[in-house]
Amino acid sequence: MEQAVLAALRRANRLAALICGVALAGCAGFILVEIVLRQTGGGLGGTDEIGGYVMAATTAWGFGYALLERAHVRIDLLRGAMPSPARVLFDLAAVLALAFVAAVLAVQSWPVLARSLEHGSRANTPLETPLVIPQALWWSGLVWFAVMAAALVMVACLALLRGRRASAQAAIGVAAESEQTP
């Protein structure tokens, strides 16, 4: 069951990563057009603003992807010296701490979006972008990160309760160098 949950989460994360990649490529194309137009005396304007929004949103959505792919940096000075049963407890403590931080980020970022919704806030730029758009994308990425972290905690706890330490370690442990994707 744990593997089925992880597989479904990975599929959803890959779709989110694909969308983020397309957004980043589109942003790069937009900036390239702006650079070419500036050479001819024209310009579109707003590339820095839109680029910032795209970076904020894709970074927030990337947190959950990196978590599930075990790409987050972890300082494991003590963990490496421990026997396997203790290592999984260190891994569980690490993912619990990360889930707590992710939940705090998601909860504490909501008031920013709520104020923009309430006041109809717009960027103080020539584009006058309704701030609810980039903030909603940013906030939803943070919520997704919190959901991914909570799901990993549940998957690991279920695996441990069922006596499947290797399955829990595969979900929340440190990725071996041979497993890491470029």
Structure notes:
By secondary structure, the chain is mostly helical. The chain has one domain. It is 74% helix and 0% strand. The chain has helices at residues 2-39, 47-68, 84-119, 132-161, 165-172. Helix 1 (2-39) runs antiparallel to helix 2 (47-68). It is elongated, with a radius of gyration of 20 Å. 24% of the residues are buried. Residues 177-182 have low confidence and may be disordered.
Task: Give the structure's gist in a few sentences.
The chain is mainly alpha-helical. The protein has 5 helices and no strands. The two termini are 28 Å apart.
Count every helix, treating DSSP H or I runs of 4 or more residues as helices.
Answer: 5
* Helix/strand/pairing category: mainly alpha
Mean pLDDT: 88
Model regions low in confidence, pLDDT < 50 over at least 5 residues: 177-182
Report the sheet with the most strands, covering strand number, pairing sense and barrel closure. none
Radius of gyration: 20 Å
Shape: elongated
Following the backbone from N to C, one meets helices and strands in this order, namely HHHHH
Task: Tell me the count of domains.
Answer: 1
Helix percentage range: over 70%
Rounded to the nearest angstrom, the distance between the terminal CA atoms is: 28 Å
The share of residues in extended strands comes to under 5%
Count the strands? 0
